[in-house]
Amino acid sequence: MNTRVLIRSSAFFMGVLGLAASFLPQEIIAHFGFKAEALCVLVVQVAGALYLGYAMLNWMARANLIGGIYSRPVATGNFLHFAVVAVVLSKAMMSGLRDVSVVIGLAAYSVFAVWFGLVLFARPFRVEEDKVDRTPTTSREDR
Question: Which end of the chain, N or C, is surrounded by fewer C-beta atoms within 10 Å?
């Protein structure tokens, strides 16, 4: 499984959420019908910083083989994050919160949770690069 698409798309997804939560906390709070009090704005901005941190972690790990014993902390952290948020959003929907953004969020988080779960618990393999002969044209003996 090529994990580069997964890690890049999750970095982009969390980067967008992080930027939105960092710079538009009052708008996000108002969208869900709450009053934008100082503590609520602070919590949304802290969550935005966490999302930006995860986005940077994933972006910096984009060239690594993810899964198995390779970059296992990255896969574990992402799996746990996406799985727990998917469960929380499912619980919110069961309690009656049926906002479109919650449904879209649940779908996105569920896809990422399953995808990271497959990477974390399945055996990794590296995608073959083009069969290019990378041997040097001259050796030390030829010089």
Answer: C
